[in-house]
Every structure is written in C-alpha cells, then in structure tokens.
Amino acid sequence: MSYQVIQVSGTILNKIESFYKEHKIDKLPAGAVFVAKSPTCNITAYKSGKVLFQGKGADEEANIWKGFGATAAPSKSSKKATTVSSSGNKVKSSLPAGFASLSVIGSDEVGTGDYFGPITVCAAYVKKEQMAMLKELGVQDSKALNDEKIVRIAKAILPHVPYSLLVLHNEKYNELQQSGMSQGKIKALLHNKALQHVLDKIAPEKPDAILIDQFAESGIYYRHVAQQKNIVRENVYFHTKAEGLHLSVAAASIIARYSFLKEMDKLSELAGITIPKGAGSKVDAAAARVIEKHGESFLNKVAKVHFVNTLKAKKLVR
Ligand code: MN
C-alpha cells in the first residue's frame, strides 16, 4: 500500500480539513486532529502538522498539498516517504489499464515555443463510444498531420466533441510575462480553466479520467493553480506525449493547432507580411520586417517579446 507523509502549516492544515470535511470520521487515534476516508485514500492529520495519506490515491492527494507549500515530512519518516513517493510516482505516471478506451477529457497547448502568435489551449471530451468515429475522421497524433489536414479534421470533429478553447493573445501574454508570471504558470492556469469549462459543459456527466499533456511535474502544476477558485484535481493524470495515449488529447491538440493557424493568418493580415511559425532565423527576419513596417512597439501585438528573437530582429534592422 502506498503512503505519504507531509508536513504543513496550521493554515494549510485547516484547508486540508475543510477540503476533506465530507469524508471525516469520528474515530481518532492519539495525537490526531482529524481523520478522513476519501474514496482513494485515508487521511490522518496530527497536531504536529504531519498529515499521513494512505491508499492508492496517496501520492496524488499528497501532491496536491505540496502544491500549496506542504513539504515531505522531516524526521525518520521522511526517508521512507521519499522512497514511497518516488516509486509511487512511477506508478502514477503509468495510466490505468485500458486507459485508451475510457471516456476522458484531454488537454494540450500550442504556440508556447513560437515567437509569433498566441498560446492556444484546448480541453476536449472524448467518450469511448465516439472513438471509432473520430479515428474515421482522421484524429491521430497531430505531429503526424500537416496544416491542411489539421484544418480539415478540426472542422469535422468540432460539432461532435465538447471542448473549451482558450486563446491567450500576445498583448495579454506579454503583460502577464512582464508582471513576472512564468510561462509554466500561464499554461497551468489555462489548462485548469479549459478543463473546468469542459467539466461544466458535460455536467452532470463525469469523465472516467482527465489527461493533461504534461509540461510540468504535477506538484508544480498544482502550485501554479493553487490560488484558483476551482481547481480540477479529480482523476487527473499527467503524461508526456499524451496525444498518443488517448484520442481526447489528440483531438484537443488538433483543435488547439487549428485555432493557432487561424490566429497566425489574422496576424499575417494585420502585419501585412506572412508571419512564420517557430523561433528560428526566418522568424528573426520576419520580426525585422515588422519593425521596419510598423515600429518596434507593434511586436507587442503579434509576438512573445521576451524571446531572444526580438533582440536578433533589432540587430537585423540596424
Ligand atoms: Mn503538449
């Protein structure tokens, strides 16, 4: 049986207590302040600020609170907890058996490495009954699809799949970035929001699981979203290359890429030149042309200005 012990402050302890309040039981061992039995694990909180999670969901539940600043408990139990957690993480990153045929909400983002254009994040719900149809429509790992196919497949699947698509335009992105927010946090907030939107759309139906194409370790992800009113955490899995693990992530990725392409077309029109993807030398040259045509401040509307491409473009202009 998997278990984890974390050490928390009084404030977090109160948060944890109210979080699990529906699952609290009356029988307390010595030194305990509360005990809760959630569907996936038992939680025992002690006056010392130690909280013990036991059961198959122990790693996942404990990780949530690490996101709020809880640490692995010190003292002799810490060694044990670390060992359990590292082996537990392995278990966690491997998905439940038969995952590909469950009904899942998947999420993915596009545009984070592109100098020009927005970040688009999509969460999409694919039920097991829809999989044959989506495969028929060509849904597969979007990296294997060219732009033309992306557009065609996206248009075909949009009417069939409950989804949420968020577009973070460059001006807003630059503002957040300049206020000190990391790209990781920006992405986490967008994923959390998109997932919540889809959960709201399909309610009272619930997915069997949620799969996020992993861009951060789960503890870091939950730290990023810790201040949000709604935090999507039930049955959430993180996995790299998730597009190949469930069609919902593949569908989300296709929709996000379709949206990104449309936005890039709009930017090309706005700038009066063809705006390239990526962050290579073609992009530097295009950014230099944008500066020549419209002035440097125009980049704020069409590009992620903190990328080194801005400096390279300015050199090209000189
Ligand atoms: Mn991804």
From TrEMBL:
Q: Name one GO cellular component term.
A: ribonuclease H2 complex
CDD domains in the cross-refs: RNase_HII_bacteria_HIII_like, RNAse_HIII_N
Q: What class of enzyme is it?
A: hydrolase
Reaction(s) catalyzed by this protein? Endonucleolytic cleavage to 5'-phosphomonoester
Keywords of the record, alphabetical order, are: Cytoplasm, Endonuclease, Hydrolase, Magnesium, Metal-binding, Nuclease
HAMAP family, alphabetized: RNase_HIII
Task: Give the similarity note.
Answer: Belongs to the RNase HII family. RnhC subfamily.
Protein name per UniProt:
Ribonuclease HIII
* The encoding gene: rnhC
Decide whether keyword Hydrolase is in the record: yes
Q: What is its main location?
A: cytoplasm
What does the record say about how the cofactor binds? Manganese or magnesium. Binds 1 divalent metal ion per monomer in the absence of substrate. May bind a second metal ion after substrate binding.
Q: What EC number(s) does this enzyme carry?
A: 3.1.26.4
Write out the annotated subcellular location.
Cytoplasm
Q: Which domain of life is it from?
A: Bacteria
* Cofactor(s) the record lists: Mn(2+); Mg(2+)
Q: Where is the RNase H type-2 domain?
A: 102-318
Q: Has UniProt tagged this entry with the keyword Metal-binding?
A: yes
- Output the GO biological process annotations, alphabetical, semicolon-separated: DNA replication, removal of RNA primer; mismatch repair
Annotated organism of origin = Sutcliffiella horikoshii
